[in-house]
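Researcher: Go.
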Amino acid sequence: MPKFLKIEKRYKLSYILIAFIYVFVASPAQVSARDAMFRAQNHVLYSDDCTTSDSKSGGSGTPFSGSGAGCGEQGYASGVSNSEANKKQIWSYFKNKGLSDEAVAGIMGNMEKESAFMPDAVNWIDCKGVVQWCYSRADNMVAKAAAEGKDWRCLDYQLDYIWYEITETSESQVMEPLKAATSPGQAANIFHDLFERSNTATGENLGRDTMAENIYREYTGKDPAPNPEASTSTGGKEANQCKTKGDAEPSKDGSLPDGECAELIERVKKLKNEGKILLMNEAPEMEDIERCGQVSACPSGDHVGIEKKTVQVLIAVAEQSGVVAKVYALNKDHFCDKGEHGKGLAIDFPYNAGTPEGEKLYKFLYDNAASLGTNKLIYSPTPSGYECMGGGAPVSCVGYYGEDTLSGHQDHIHLSL
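Model: Structure:
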């Protein structure tokens, strides 16, 4: 018997008492400290103090049980923030796939912002993993793991799933721009805009380029090339700086109006009184607008509110497009699609395809997509010479959305941000 197991009887009670104190006193303190570090480095979004999970339950909480979940000490439960082992594995994985140093650093800059490289990270709206898949994308990721008999919280599975998405699904739109990136900062912005698509209205996109540059230095030992000024990013710092001017000057073509939520709400009411905004389902739509910036997201049964940027875009349409901003659905009066409506980031404009007003509005939304922050535009058919948009980029309407989706968008334009 090992020497440390030879404990005399008279000391056993003391050792049991010490163990009891450690489990019920010391461990919570350590977990609390670890939680605080994790939240501090991840903007509090990526910690859930109310739930836990393990590999048997398949639950969505965090933390999980490290090696007990079959993945090794790679997750949040390991207590290692910005895990160096995880970073090395991620760098090697994408380099072995043939991506450039710039592209890999760009991907990793996004991962650092999203999850601190923790594959078991789960945020308050149940977005999961190193890149924080949300809603149907999270469901698909978990379902594929289950179908393959794998634990979705394992980093190796998540890396394979990312590669599957960017090579075999509509997320492949990111590959060519990513491969063409000439700096890690530019690659980070591209990966954000075309793959992550976070809420730029609240600045969630910011800082990823700097993180990517630091990762590039760490793994190449070289200083990165500067991010080109003519970046393809629609989520860069210049495009998303918050403005706080109180004057309600008309917004200029292709720009978002200034002001915070209280000012923007009054501006909507004024435009509504002038007949430039028409709410087709006035009570629920006005409730959403008056809860600017206070979104109650899906899958709540009574989700209400819209993001500030959605209010800004509504005002821009009313003041700049030359068409009355008719609104058919925002958040509360739209079925919970676990998508942009449910996040307060979508507007349906009820103009039939082929009408002069519908075509004029669609062209305005399409031509000003970068400054408005457009993620998706769906309309069938689109005006001559125009396409649909997906992931902030032009896409084939049929190829990207399919006939079934398009058939439901002949009488309105769907805009999501």
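Model: The CA atoms of residues 38 and 409 lie 43 Å apart.
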